[in-house]
Every structure is written in C-alpha cells, then in structure tokens.
Amino acid sequence: MQNPLKNRINLILLTGTIVLSCGPTDLSNIKKISVDLERIKSTDVLLVSDHTLPQHLNLDTAGANGEERIFIDPTLERLREKLLSRGLNAYILNVEDLTVDGEITDEDTFEAAYALYDEVLNVAVMAQATIVAIHYDADLIPAENYGKNAAYASAEEDGEEYGYVGGIQLILDERSTSEATLRLANQIIHQDKILDQLHEVGFRIRPGYDGKVRFQANQTMNISGHSAGGSFLLEIAPQDQAVRLYGTPNNIVRAIDGPLSSLADTINYFRKNLM
What we know:
Number of strands: 9
Structural class: alpha/beta
Distance between the termini: 23 Å
Shape: globular
CATH class: Alpha Beta
C-alpha cells in the first residue's frame, strides 16, 4: 500500500533536484531538505515565522516596520520551549532555513526558498501537524499613509481617524479551514480567551475582532488551514504599541509569558484530544 506522505516527500525532493540542476539561474544556495522533511513527519507542532529577516531581501515580506522578525523570533522560541516542556515535538521553520548559508539576498534565492517553504507546509499538513504562525501587527497607520486617498480612513482610536488600527487578532483564510482549524480557533478565542489574556497585558485587540476570527487571504493559512491538526495565525500585539509599553523584544516576551503558557496549554490539550 502506498504512503501518501512518503510519496509527497519523494516528489518534493525530485522536483527540487530538477529545479536546482536544470534551472537557468544559480540556486546553489538552496538547501537540500530531505532531513527537514523527515523531521516534519514526527512533528506535533510546526511554528512558522513567514517573514524575511530585516537584513535580507525584502519584497514586502519583512512585516511591520521591516523588522517584525526581531519580535517574532524570541516569541516563537519561548512558545517552542513551553510546548516541549509539555511533551510536544515542536519545530520552528523560517524561510531562510531553506538556504545553505541562511541568507536571502537575491530574487532567485527568495523565490526558490519560499517555494520550498510552501512545500514543507504541505508536508506538515499531510503529517497532520498543528501549524502555528506568530506575527506582530502594524500599529496605527495615518489615513494619509494608507493608500493614495486619505478619504479611505477606516478606523478610529481615541477620537482620531486612521487608515488602519492594528491589534491582536486570530487570522484564518476562508479558502482553507478544516474542521480542526475552526475548532482550534474557537478554543483559542472563546474557551481559553487567549486574545483577552494578551489584551490584559496592555495590547489593543484589533477593533471588531475581540470575539471572532478575521478571515483574510494569506498564503500560509491557505496551505496550512487544511491540516487535520489545525492551524492558525495569531497577531500577538501591535508591534509599536508593544515597544511603547515594554521597550525591547525580550521584555515583550517576558510580559506575555502568561498568555504564551496558556496558548501552549491550549495547543497541548487540543493535540491530545484530536479525533
């Protein structure tokens, strides 16, 4: 009997070999990922950062202020520690991990690394991993800086009108929502109230999303939302607001230690009760 997961891994490895050996561009910096794919097969929770590092090529991929990874990385590492302490096999995936030297400085490497990143996500879906993306949101964007027409201001904060008011929110892509993904989102928002716990630390919940999922197009969620292990993207905080309150990324992570523990408990309970 054929093993679909093994077949998918073999297909990815074959496709990658063909691309690397036959393509017109130099992709010598793209990593051979057989070890990574084998590791995914036994991963309970795949933690993903999605964004590129501040010093790497940024094609609208570096997130808030072009430096979101400075905040994402220590947050993911702390969440991973908590998941490991609960007996879960947790693994962090960054897009630069798919290069030989950990660098993304040109478009060819950028495109190839993200293509492999998506394939790793596909393998994680087939392995029924729980896939968790952690981001930090933009904060307050003035109307005049949000699109070409200031008349499109769409949100208000403290009596001021803004083009965007960012905040804590849980994001899914409506094109890709397994039963497990919807159930996990419900547990996070309504049962365990993780968004409320982050709000108690001092962070703003994105207006209109304090008790519901935000559905929007998102490449990672479009792939991972199919997982029978569930998936979600959590905007932890408005990044600039977090800096105003706590200063440094490490201080921010210390401030959200309680909510991160609760999130790890949620994921652990969910994993142990998968049908």
